[in-house]
Structure formats: C-alpha cells, structure tokens
Design a protein that fits this description.
Length: 368
C-alpha cells in the first residue's frame, strides 16, 4: 500500500468485515453490485469523519483483490498471501494516498508525481499500470474533499478514462466539498454516524482505553465518530474539558482566570492552525454539554449529572425554579452561539474572553 506521506486515519486496521462496525446497508449494496456483476470503476464514500469509511474501503479492496473468492461475493478469505499483504499494508495492487500529516490539502504530486516524474508517478499513474499479483488494481484516495485545484483536473482525467481492470475508491467527509464533475463520475455511497455503543466498543478494541466507563463517556461526546471519541481520551483534551468544567461550576464565575487557564489548556493541544480551529469549537461544545446536563437535572429529567462539576453546581441551584431555568437556558444559548460563531475560531483567545464574560454576566442575572 503506497500511502505517500499520509497520516493514518484508519479506525484500527480492520481489513475484514468481522472487525468493522455498522454500515450493513452499504455492505449489502456492494453485495448486490457484485452479485449482479456490475462493479463500477469509481465509488465515492462520504459521511462523517471517523466512522470507518476508510476501513470500509480497505475491506472492500481486500474482497476485490483476494484470489480465493470469486468476483460475485463480497468476501475475502483473510488467510491467503493477498489478504495478508493487505492487512500489512504492502499489497502491490492496492494503492492508497490521503492528506499528509499536518497538511490541509492533498498535493497534486500524490496523484500525478512531481517535477521530472510528473505524469509518471502518483496514484493516477500507478492505477494505469497492469496489476502485479491480482487481476485488478484498486486505488483508495482518502480526503478526496481536500484536493488542490490541479488535483481535481488530474483526477477527472482518470475518472473519465478509467484504466482497464481498475477500481478507484474516493473517501470524503463532506459531499458538498467534492466538485460536481468528480461526483457525477462516481457512484455515491453515503455513510452515517455509528451508534454510541459501537464507538465505545471500538475504543476498547483499538486500545484507546481499557476502561469501559471512560469509553462510554468519550463515545457519548463523539457524535458517532471513533476519531472524535479517541480525541476525547487525549490527556490534553481532558485537561481542557476539566479546566472548563471547574470554572463553569464556580459561583461566582471568574472570567479572567477562566480565560487564562482555558487558553493555556487549549494551546497545549496543538499549534497548527487546523487543530487550533477544531479544538476551539470544543470549548463551546463542552460548555453546551455541561449546561444541557445542568438543565436536565434542574428540570427533573435526570436525577444527577454524570459530570461531577455540573452535579456540584446543581446542588447549589434551586431545582424547578423558573428564574434559574431561564438563566441556565440563556447561558446554554450563549454557548450554542459560540459554537456557531465562525469568528471565534480566528479570534481566540479574545473571543473566548468575550464568551466567558457573557456567561459570567448571564449567571448573575436575577441573583444580585
Ligand atoms: Zn484472501
């Protein structure tokens, strides 16, 4: 597998269906395609990040390359040389590229080579070569929604004139970010989020944690994405969350100190602009989780909060009191605004300070 300089975003190294969670409808769809002998040249797998699209693509590739199973079934034996090579990432007929580590675009060189080797290297060129061991070649282009402009042209050429005995599998988080010219030449396969229990199971399976409670908690914050859940287990992310929760539970709140400590925790999470932006929205999302939990307790829907700091705040507030419910509701609204605010991402830590100031002000309404 020639994954040129790419980050590995796989959810474990599942290359057989037994290790893949969910996505049964998509699997049945491909079973139907193969049973009818109608395998196409290009597929586009789209859906939320971290739900196993890439793992699905690899499982599919294993089925298409395994010499022991015929082309009408969606199975790979898992034992032959081909299957072992796929599991090891070394099958010569399975090509795979994606976003390089820390980059926001897939460079065109990954598709068609660079400098003197332009047109004689890269994924599109490699796919045009004859298969070496199997009877076809399979290319996986992960992060297909992050191509350079020229990259789209190069890819389009391959999609318009697909090499014989080749299958291209594009994987993307957002359908909207794929150009129509590309999308219209692929068969679209949509993926959705995983159930929370599957996410928690997977966290344990891939060794992200061996603690079931931790796994459930992280999965509960992850919107059905294993990648997000794994991020929640990152020690620095936990520090950010716990620092924020500690300050949200304070009465009165101290927005200045809160900004200082939350920003410090946020900065320790990663310095490149992409992760900074992503991590900034987590401050708002954690606060939303916090106040939703407080509201559920105050409204009598939950007996207590699973967030200890939220439980502590609840114990100081009057359950069922309309004014208190209003106040917390207004703070939750402010958090939802912060999550949606595109400026907040570029203005940190100023935006955070304004956000915490507003929260502190709203927390005092009617209590002076
Ligand atoms: Zn096999």
């Amino acid at each position: 597998m020639d994954r040129t300089g790419a980050r590995d975003v796989s959810i474990g190294q599942a290359t057989n269906w037994s290790r893949l969670r969910g996505h049964n409808a998509q699997r049945e769809h491909f079973e139907g395609i193969l049973a009818a002998g109608r395998l196409g040249h290009a597929y586009l797998l789209v859906g939320p990040e971290g739900v196993g699209k890439l793992a699905f693509a690899r499982c599919l590739a294993a089925c298409l390359l395994c010499p022991r199973t015929d082309d009408s079934t969606l199975e790979a034996c898992g034992e032959c040389q081909s299957c072992k090579q796929i599991a090891a990432g070394s099958h010569p007929d399975l090509l795979e590229v994606g976003l390089p580590e820390g980059k926001n675009v897939v460079p065109i060189s990954v598709l068609v080579g660079d400098g003197e080797s332009r047109g004689r290297a890269g994924l599109c060129y490699d796919l045009s070569l004859s298969p070496m061991e199997s009877d076809r070649r399979v290319a996986i282009l992960d992060d297909a929604d992050h191509l350079e402009r020229d990259g789209y042209s190069a890819l389009l050429k391959t999609l318009e004139e697909p090499p014989a005995r080749s299958v291209m599998i594009l994987v993307a988080g957002s359908e909207a970010d794929i150009r129509d010219t590309i999308r219209s030449r692929c068969q679209l396969i949509r993926f959705s989020s995983l159930p929370t229990t599957d996410v928690a199971d997977l966290l344990i399976e891939i060794g992200a944690t061996d603690n079931r409670t931790e796994a459930d908690e992280a999965a509960g914050l992850a919107d059905g994405s294993v990648a997000t859940a794994a991020l929640m287990l990152d020690p620095n992310m936990r520090t950010l969350r716990e620092t924020l929760y500690r300050h949200l539970a304070r009465s009165p709140m101290d927005p200045l100190k809160m900004t200082e400590e939350v920003v410090a925790a946020w900065e320790s999470l990663g310095s490149d602009s992409h992760s900074k932006r992503v991590n900034a929205t987590w401050v708002a999302r954690f606060a939303i989780e916090f106040y939703r939990s407080v509201l559920r307790v105050l409204a009598g829907a939950d007996e207590t909060s699973k967030i200890p700091e939220a439980a502590s705040l609840c114990s100081q507030l009057a359950a069922g009191d309309p004014a208190t419910l209003d106040r917390i509701g207004s703070m939750l609204d402010r958090c939802l605004d912060a999550e949606r605010d595109p400026m907040a991402n570029v203005m940190l830590p100023l935006a955070l300070e304004a956000f915490f100031d507003d929260l502190a002000r709203r927390s005092r309404i009617g209590t002076d």
